[in-house]
């Protein structure tokens, strides 16, 4: 009887270890538009590990090399119209960011020279327009994310998806189609322009395959002085599914406020999701 009890305890212990191993969690991370280096994720990983106090599993997505291969083609009328509308959204947000209470509080104590956003408007608008108006480019970028999500699904039970800027748009498009393949316990969109794209008609209120069964929590991280980002909850009032908007104070000036991947508040949110 004693031996049988010991065997039963050993079996239970082994089963518990196996179940714990199956519950392993991985972070899939994707950057935004711009000339990101191929090892862009290393500072972010190091910062998250400092918060956790130990290493964690992660799979980075890189697509900056795809963007550099795009052909310099003349804009179609539809693309030109989109660029004009999207740039207007950016300009309006920049004006709102200048009036943010966060920025106003800093300007009371010191003089701040706001940078000209004209070049940033053009660069951001071009990258987003290229993504939407080149089916080849869009499919190639999405394929990079799908590849890593599929790898995560095979090796791990739970996925935390962290996306920045244009990467949030890529992630949203992929999850709308394929979320039912994955068990995403937390989806972070940081510095996302999705609400702007919703306002100019690139998206409607539909979330596709995104639901609580496959995307347990969607956290949208934004700063009021970031001229790219907006709250997303009001943009997707789907009954039975809520986008949780999380304000973080990243920077004072509108350009600096888009640097979510080097902000400790944001990094703490990512680390908490991996505990």
What does the secondary structure layout of this molecule look like, with pairings?
Blueprint: H1 2-22, E1 25-30, H2 42-52, E2 57-61, H3 64-67, H4 77-98, H5 101-109, H6 118-133, H7 135-155, E3 158-164, H8 166-178, E4 184-190, H9 194-199, E5 218-222, E6 243-247, H10 264-273
Parallel strand pairs: 1-2, 1-3, 3-4, 4-5, 5-6
Helix pairs in contact: 2-10, 4-6, 7-8
Short key terms for the protein model shown above:
6-stranded parallel beta sheet; alpha/beta; 13% strand; 275 residues
CATH superfamily: Alpha/Beta hydrolase fold, catalytic domain
Any idea of the CATH class?
Alpha Beta
Q: Nearest-angstrom radius of gyration?
A: 21 Å
Name the helix and strand elements from N-terminus to C-terminus, one letter apiece. HEHEHHHHHEHEHEEH
Strand order of the biggest β-sheet: 2-1-3-4-5-6
CATH topology descriptor: Rossmann fold
Which whole number gives the mean pLDDT? 87
Strand content: 5-15%
Main beta-sheet annotation: 6 strands, parallel
Number of strand elements: 6
Please indicate the count of domains. Answer: 1
Number of helices: 10
CATH architecture: 3-Layer(aba) Sandwich
What's the shape? globular
Helix % is: 40-55%
Give the distance, in angstroms, between the N- and C-terminal Cα atoms: 40 Å
Uncertain runs are: 17-22
Q: Which structural class is indicated by helix and strand composition?
A: alpha/beta
């Amino acid at each position: 009887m004693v031996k049988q009890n010991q065997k039963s305890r050993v079996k239970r212990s082994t089963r518990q270890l196996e179940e714990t191993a199956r519950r392993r969690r991985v972070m899939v991370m994707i950057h935004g538009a711009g000339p990101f280096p191929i090892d862009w994720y290393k500072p972010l990983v190091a910062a998250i590990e400092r918060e956790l106090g130990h290493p964690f599993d992660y799979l980075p997505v890189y697509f900056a090399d795809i963007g550099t291969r795009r052909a310099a083609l003349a804009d179609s009328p539809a693309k030109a119209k989109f660029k004009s509308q999207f740039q207007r959204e950016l300009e309006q947000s920049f004006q709102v960011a200048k009036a943010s209470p966060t920025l106003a509080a800093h300007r009371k104590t010191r003089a701040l020279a706001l940078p000209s956003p004209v070049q940033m408007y053009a660069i951001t608008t071009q990258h987003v327009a290229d993504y939407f108006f080149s089916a080849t480019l869009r499919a190639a970028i999405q394929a990079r994310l799908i590849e890593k999500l599929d790898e995560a699904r095979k090796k791990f039970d739970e996925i935390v998806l962290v996306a920045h800027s244009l990467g949030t748009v890529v992630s949203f498009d992929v999850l709308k189609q394929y979320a039912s393949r994955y068990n995403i316990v937390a989806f972070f969109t940081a510095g996302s322009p999705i609400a702007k794209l919703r306002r100019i008609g690139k998206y409607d209120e539909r979330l596709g395959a995104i639901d609580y069964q496959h995307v347990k929590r969607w956290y949208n991280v934004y700063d009021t002085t970031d001229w790219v980002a907006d709250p997303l909850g009001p943009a997707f009032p789907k009954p039975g599914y809520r986008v949780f908007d999380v304000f973080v104070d990243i920077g004072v000036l509108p350009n600096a406020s888009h640097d979510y991947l080097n902000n400790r508040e944001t990094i703490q949110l990512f680390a908490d999701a991996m505990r």
